[in-house]
Amino acid sequence: MAVTKKGKGKSFIVKFLLAINILFLLCLLTSYVAPFVSPAKYWLFAFFGLAYPIWLVINFFFLLLWILLWKKYAWITLVVILLGFNHLLSIFPVTFSARKNVPSGSLKIMTYNVHSLYGITNKPYNPGIRSKVTDFLAEQKPDILCIQEFFAKSEDSTQILNRFTKEIGSGYFTYKNYQEIKNKKRVNVLAIFSKFPILGNGFIRMNNRNVFCVFADILINGIKVRVYDLHLESNKFGNEDYSFYAHLTEKESESLDLSAGSLKIFSKLKKAFAFRAEQVDMLKKEMDNSPYPVIVCGDFNDPPNSYTYHVLSDKLKDSYKKAGKGLFGNTFAGNFPSFRIDYILFDNLFEASNYKRIKVDLSDHYPVSVYLKILPQN
Questions:
Q1: What sign does the CA torsion over 366, 367, 373, 378 have?
Q2: Domain residues of the chain, as ranges?
């Protein structure tokens, strides 16, 4: 029986779509490998990991297409998507067993990159923003608060932090400037605030670069816990980079130098991926030698499908996955694509409940919080 031209045409279209589907399935599979490969050695995988949500969405549409066309190729796409089930949980947690109510005796942990108290955009320092941030945090009443990019000037650093500590209702704090600052009336710090006694503290710096981690040993109900506050290497996007991205979807994008703009962003990402890989390798060794159970908070500057997240979450639990809800859970509120880059990870000593990402327009990041309850000890 002769095959009609119409039949040949349909067959060609299906084969063409299948070829495209296979290409994107390979991209998705490569993104699954990204968390296990250090960008300091092989940087290309990091870009595939960064684009994981894109590969996932594209392949999901192919899955729907094959189902509608009643094609067996749907099984191939479904199997590949499910191979990354753990990655899927990082952007869409399934928390049926998570507690909806906060158990008595739980601690409220919060992390917040306050963007140097500039507000949402890179405007000059505004003391008024600090007052709004202070009022917001005082309302939240965290038991332990980790802050990144706390900036202030015109007052002695100790006075600034002492007053901030009292205003938000904490009793103890520790901090470290990103860089050594001779001017005592100017601070730009990573800081940890606690309602519980801080028994010890420290910081981590890589190769004479900026401090990227401070830690505090905190006595909580008779148990010592080490809390890490991180701010890993930034992508260092400037106003030109944000402007380039913003105009990509506008009519005037035709006048942009796409090659130069894209190459500049690509280069910055590549360098930042490598720096963060070195930082987390160093930090992981320190964490493994911690004499106490750990809580890790902060701005990782990397999404869940990254080497950074994979290394730091090893042997720890992700509060979003254990007690969060909703799709993606993005914590970056800036102009670039939104990702979940702010985290609270915790040791097996704790049980999580009531994770929240709080949408307030006081920074280019959203604060996140979770309640942790210390489990009974044998």
A1: positive
A2: 5-83, 107-374
- Pairwise pLDDT comparison (122 vs 196), residue with the higher score: 196
Query: Which residues share a beta bridge with 38?
Result: none
pLDDT, tens only, 60-72: 999 999 999 888 9
Closest CA to 60 of 88, 98, 31, 95: 88
Question: Using one digit for the tens of pLDDT, what is the confidence trace for 340-358?
Answer: 999 999 999 999 999 999 9
Is it the case that residue 51 has pLDDT exceeding 50? yes
- Nearest Cα neighbor of 342 from 365, 374, 316, 371 is 365
Give me 213's structure tokens: 């981690």
Angstrom distance (rounded) from CA 59 to CA 51:
13
pLDDT over 60 at 129, yes or no: yes
What average pLDDT does range 40-61 have in this prediction? 94
Cα angle, residue 43 at apex, residues 37 and 45 outer, rounded to 5°? 55
Q: Which residues contact 49 (CB under 8 A, 6 or more apart)?
A: 31, 34, 35, 303, 305, 306, 307
Q: How high is the mean pLDDT of the chain?
A: 86
CATH class of 107-374: alpha beta
Q: Is the Cα dihedral 85, 90, 93, 98 positive or negative?
A: positive
pLDDT band at residue 246, thresholds of 50, 70 and 90? very low
